[in-house]
Amino acid sequence: MKFTAALLFTAALCVPALAADQTQIFATQASALRITPIYHATVKIQAGQDIIYLDPAKPAKMDGMGPGGLILITDIHGDHMDADYVTKLSKPGTAVIAPAAVAKTITQARVLANGETTRWHDFKITAVPMYNISHNQPTGQPFHDKGRGNGYVVNYGGKNIYFAGDTEGVPEMRALKDIDVAFIPMNLPYTMTPAEAADAVKAFHPKIAIPYHYKGQDVQAFKKALDRSGVQVRLLEWYPE
Q: Taking the CA of residue 184 as centre, how many other CA atoms within 13 Å lie in the half-sphere pointing to its CB?
């Protein structure tokens, strides 16, 4: 028995920490809502038996995670969309919701345009515009054109969870109301600086703000900028080694 216990303990030491250790659990008017950071912009959302994946893409490690009933995709870039992962995480009946630009590749996707709302089981999903307003390519072309991609507000059991996608602090973000949790990107040149992200968060004032899609950025500066705002900032590790 001692030998078996020792083996189990040794094996546990050899297993890397899982993203599930950072799962955020939110009480709702229905069942608990569990949100697990996986990598960069990839997220698992679970309520009861319902599982949603947001932006499953490499190099996120998805092995052993099991299929989802819904896959949400924000944009065409490779850190948000991976056709192989969509296939691996699908089961008969899995729905995919995405903007039209994504549906050109993920052809089974149901298109949801900016401003549109749909329902899946007990979830209400609204597409929010995500785009650049000042950070552009050397040609002057935005990295993300208005209308091409979607952020999403996911409502479940009275809780509103906002996943901003690749965006700056655009007017549509600043106009949001009653957001409980906001996942906010900050990485140049594709989205915004931590200071710009904090300024945008102050405008729509979610209860909780969680940086994601931030590789190489100073998330502590984002947190400090919101110290006296009344917004709770939670810093999670999105880039495990």
A: 38
63, 47 contact by CB (below 8 A): no
With cut-offs at 50, 70 and 90, classify the pLDDT of residue 9: very low
Q: Are the C-beta atoms of residues 223 and 203 closer than 8 Å to each other?
A: no
Q: Which of 37, 80, 89, 39 is nearest to 61 (CA)?
A: 39
Separation between Cα atoms, residue 36 and residue 42, nearest integer Å? 9
Tell me which residue has tokens 């947001």. Answer: 54
pLDDT tens digit sequence for 27-37: 999 999 999 99
The whole-number average pLDDT for the span 146-166 is 97
Best CA proximity match to 186, nearest among 214, 226, 158:
214
Confidence of residue 166 (pLDDT cuts 50, 70, 90): very high
User: Helices marked H in 131-237 — which ranges?
Assistant: 171-174, 194-204, 219-225
Which homologous superfamily is 19-233 in?
Ribonuclease Z/Hydroxyacylglutathione hydrolase-like (3.60.15.10)
Q: Nearest CA to 85 among 66, 110, 104, 113?
A: 66
Asked if the model's pLDDT at residue 11 lies above 90, the reply is no
Task: Looking at 1-157, list the stretches that DSSP marks H as alpha helix, in order from N- to C-terminal side.
Answer: 2-14, 83-88, 100-103
pTM: 0.90
CA distance 70 to 11: 34
Residue with tokens 């319902």: 50
* Residue recorded with tokens 């999403």: 152
CA within 13 Å, CB half, 71: 31
- Close Cβ partners of 141 (under 8 Å, ≥ 6 residues apart): none
